[in-house]
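User: For a benchmark we're assembling, each entry needs the component sequences followed by a predicted structure for the full assembly. Here are entry 17's components. Please fill in the structure.
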Amino acid sequence: MGQKKIDIKQVRQVAKLSRLDLSEAEISQFTGQLGAILEYVEKLNQLDTSKVEPLAHCLPINNCLRKDEVKQSLGTEKTLANAPDKDEQFFIVPKILEEPGGF
Amino acid sequence: MSKEILKLSCRDLQAKIAKGEVKSGDAVSAVFGRIEKYDGQIGAFLSAFKQDALKRAEEIDEKIAKGQSVGALAGVPIAVKDNMCTTFGATSCASKILENFHSPYNATVIEKLLAADAVIIGKTNLDEFAMGSSTENSGLKKTVNPWDKDRVPGGSSGGSAAAVAAQMCFASLGSDTGGSIRQPASFCGVAGLKPTYGRVSRYGLVAYGSSLDQIGPLTKDTADCALLLNVIAGHDEKDSTSVDEKTAPLCDFLSGVGKEVKNLKIAVVPQLFDGADSEIVAGVKSAIEIYKKLGAEIVEIEMPHFEYAIAAYYLIATAEASSNLARYDGVHYGHRTKNAGDYIEVYAKSRAEVLGTEVKRRIMLGTYVLSSGYYDAYYLKALKVRNLIRSDFTAAFGKADCIMMPTSPTTAFKIGEKTADPLQMYLSDVYTIAVNLAGVPAISIPCGFDNKNLPIGLQIISPAFGEEKLLRIAGMFESQTDFHKKKPEL
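Assistant: Structure for entry 17:
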């Protein structure tokens, strides 16, 4: 981690990766606040973890497999019920492909 | 009569309803009397279902009149945090992005409450997506503490805690990712249990930090926590992280409450008391004295990695949140911007227009720590420290049955006191967060009041899947004290 605190350029890049269209005021606010939080978490480097395994979860189980059985699903109507834009069968979004007939 | 009903515990109310001595309809009317009178000031509820609740109560009363058998929560008015999916009403997570979202299915805990004949009366306020420690991050409503309306109820399950404290329901469900059941329970003077990770199905709980989230009850006392745990615990094939009953056998959590734990050994961590207000330390220490008088042995231990929990948590939880909240894309459900040129802008503007500042901040932090070049230094490092924190708990439980410490370093703080500095807000979770990282269960029960008449919480932590003993230990304290019986004057 070293001395690396986050700068405004990095915050802009993270906002892009996060798909958040932030205002300049937010970008500048977050640059300071994220910097302070990242400085605080530096304290983890006081610990030698070279021989420690990462722990992703605490459960005494690993894989959970169920039987491959067909079950009732929600169905189209319920699945689309909360969509902001839709027709009878599909979610509607702006065009994604640049070239017509791009398939 | 409604005053008498409101004083009852869930189990006494259920017993009286099941015998026909009290009508569920009267219990529902009594809590709506309170809601209509006081929730304008308290702000605990985001939605309430009076007509549906009265109708359901009538159906349960009819079943009883016909002599049919009824469930463990028959006719009991219960509130649920608004991050659990219900087919009735909205499921908003107190976020403008989901303000009008209507779930097509019920969370498993909702199905279980209904199967036990509970009456779900409404859905309670929270910090947006359960991200916060004061409920001030709600995008929809302000909730205040019933003990002092200038103060926060705690968070993120602040509405659930305030509703129980103000007797606007008999019990509620909350969720706890870093203390979000226990800390508001402590601030509002009620009992709040975070079960072991895996004990209760998370199916239908809107995800925040998936390796940490767990649903649990907030109630008037420990025995009611046990009763609700009886109803909601157990394996669910729809949640692969809910543990099968061979690994974690179920039992009747309620029947043991009231029975002493013999040869009880309590671990305390003297160094951890340094960080709490003196009145909190005094309250918790006098609670431990009561256990001593009951014959418990106190073992002083060290937990050398405990102080690293907040740092590890805010890397792990935000990393998980950044992934979980990617689903709010303005396409499948929720708010969509009217100002998008292309599909990328649909995502970026829909999210930016309505998500609150704390949610954005956590998505940003999580995205950063998972991004290329920083993953090892931050996220992986935090997971390794998580293992060290868990090993502190394993070592502690080798020496004692439970660990006792404060739930929170302060009593309820003033509204607005910590909103300007997110790091200060994070630090208020210093005692609760390590428990989530270790996956173990813990309860907060009232153990005193400070000089402003604000409740102090005692936190008791036990080994994984040790809820039966944990609840018995908490019950021992309640049998000697009446802090849990004190109610705020509204």
